[in-house]
Amino acid sequence: MTAIDVTGARTTEAADVITGARERIDALDDRIIGLIQERMAVSAVIQEARITSGGRRVNLSREMEILSHYSEALGKPGTSLAMTLLELCRGRI
């Protein structure tokens, strides 16, 4: 299978550009996944401290701040992304 077949490009030059860009995206995705895992660990520390002190696992006003931040930065899809991050970090409520 050629690079043209794999990328859907119609020229070798375009296939080379796409292949390089995909490698960059894969590297970015690996970094994003690592950052999400780090965020999950930090969130677990916060939840543990909150619960140990007698508080609730989730702070809804803080979650609203996060939703707003993502929405302002990324639009409506940002809200969905933030919801997914919050679910990953605290589980479903």
Automatic annotation (TrEMBL):
**Assigned keywords, A-Z:** Isomerase
Q: InterPro entries given for it?
A: Chorismate_II_sf, Chorismate_mutase_highGC-bac, CM_dom_sf, CM_II_prokaryot
Superkingdom of origin organism: Bacteria
Domain (Chorismate mutase) ranges? 12-93
Please give the biological process terms from Gene Ontology that the record holds: chorismate metabolic process
Q: What is its EC number?
A: 5.4.99.5
| One Pfam assignment | CM_2
**SMART domains per record:** CM_2
EC class (word): isomerase
Question: Which GO molecular function, any one, fits this protein according to its record?
Answer: chorismate mutase activity
- Cited NCBIfam families: CM_M_hiGC-arch, PRK07857.1
The protein's name in its UniProt record: Chorismate mutase
Organism, scientific name: Streptomyces cyaneochromogenes
